[in-house]
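Side project, low priority. Logging it here so it doesn't get lost.
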Amino acid sequence: MHANYQRCATANIKKVHTQIFIKTLRLLRQPKRWIVVSFVSLISVLLSSVMMMTSAQAATVSVSNYPLFLLSQAVTEGAPSAKQLLQPGEVGHHGSISPGDIKAIQDSKFVVWFGASLENNLASSLETAPNAISLFGFNAFNRHPLRDVKGQPIAGTLDPHIWLDPENAKAITRALAVIHSHANPQYKKLYHTNAQKFAQRMDSTVAKMQQQGKQKTYPYWAYHDAYQYMEPALHLKLIGSLSTDHHLAPKASQLRWLNEQRPAKKMCLVTQSDPAKGLLAKLQPVTSTVQAEDMSASKEFVSGWSSMAQHIRHCIS
């Protein structure tokens, strides 16, 4: 009888939770000056409904992948950290979760992820989880469409690497501060103070990079187009990419096209892993820099973003 009651109660709360989510999500479809206020309000209302379902669980927050974990770490510094589900290098396109991870999802008060379009290996576990919060579900971030290998936008798509945009990174930390505060209210002041400090550091880093810029635009090639969200802050311009996926070899026709579209005698190729020497020989003169879009080589977000930015700029200069 108790089990039946629990199932009925859970079903009813899920229904209310969904209704609240849809209703409050509409608040975000309004002028941009209200985005931050509406986003925080939405998060707060959504979390209140989820708390009803998880009051008996430990106050644990789980986050999906490594860049989200780095952002969460910035918020929780000085307090217990979130649990990271996917390991560095497993942004979501690749990798898998273990039975232990599935249990962690079930035991967590909240599970924050980007969404199925990036983390399809988590979709089966999180899309219907009542404690899961998908950041892609909020109309609160700068977004760009995917681009083809010639740098042209593909209508109706989303480039999922939103965390590389400094403004998005700040917005995500504000959201995480609210989420962590609902899970562990005793650290609320610390979380929000940390989010403010993160924003200040991020702004300072971007300003410094822009002051160092000596030219209007910095043209570059990418093996796989994953750095679009860094371009406005760094004045980068993608000329084209080698392939739609860094696991796929480029076509000879694409290499020929890139050489024909060379805006500078010596180009920079930004890659996710060391390119084959034979490939570089076909693009000479060229320099390359390895920069993982999931920031798996970094231990902290702002310094990691700054390091990526400096290496890309140095490669182009």
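Brief comment: The CA atoms of residues 97 and 103 lie 10 Å apart.
Revisit when time allows.
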